[in-house]
Design a protein that fits this description.
Elements (H helix, E strand, L loop, with lengths): L14 E2 L1 E6 L5 E6 L2 E5 L4 E6 L4 H9 L1 E6 L5 H9 L7 H5 L3 E2 L8 E2 L4 E12 L4 E12 L12 H4 L2 E4 L4 E4 L15
Antiparallel strand pairs: 1-11, 2-3, 2-6, 4-5, 5-10, 6-9, 7-8, 9-10, 11-12
Length: 189
């Protein structure tokens, strides 16, 4: 099969979609939707979020040194999109969307109640990369709705119903079914 070279772009797909909450020194809460997000370390657990310096949340996260990664279900795709296309400088996104802020256990930044998974993170490093700064956050608390837990007390993806973003076409996609399990090819090649 022939392959075509395309314009340079971060062409990974699909990427996770999250709503990140942060809180400034005046206790104003903001939500930023991000898809440039990923696990960057296992022990201690760390997540990287890439944020443009021009975004309102960037300064809040830099100054506060913390953020909460809230993983929305497909039921929140409209609210998630709104929080990504609207500036928190101009709009109180919690009021506009009807989302509920609830106190975190270890941080000032709140969780979003409606999201089935919330990860409290403390900034450990900031890397300037060009168009974005990468905030590396150590996960200091994990909150999971009991309704999305599977039999082994782990997150059941089918119940959590997360969705992803496809940057090349600007679409949100759901995740329909598993196609394998880690290690299922052991001894097959």
């Amino acid at each position: 099969m022939a392959k075509r070279c395309l314009e340079l772009a971060p062409s990974l797909f699909l990427t996770p979609v999250v709503m990140v909450t942060c809180q400034d020194r005046d206790n104003r809460v903001n939500i930023i939707t991000l898809a440039w997000v990923g696990v960057v370390n296992s022990e201690p657990p760390m997540i990287g979020i890439a944020v443009r310096p021009s975004r309102f949340s960037h300064g809040i996260i830099r100054e506060s040194g913390e953020f909460v990664v809230n993983v929305p279900s497909q039921d929140l795709v409209r609210e998630t999109d709104f929080c990504g296309i609207t500036s928190g400088e101009e709009v109180d996104k919690l009021s506009a969307t009807g989302l509920t802020a609830v106190a975190a256990k270890k941080l000032r930044a709140p969780l979003i109640q409606e999201c089935p998974v919330n990860l409290e993170c403390v900034v450990r490093e900031i890397l300037g990369l060009g168009s974005h700064d990468l905030f590396i956050g150590e996960v200091v608390m994990v909150h999971v709705e009991e309704t999305v837990l599977g039999p082994r007390q782990s997150i059941d993806v089918e119940k959590a119903r997360p969705f992803a973003y496809c940057p090349g076409v600007g679409q949100y996609w759901n995740l329909k079914e598993p196609v394998g399990t880690h290690g299922f090819t052991r001894g097959q090649f």
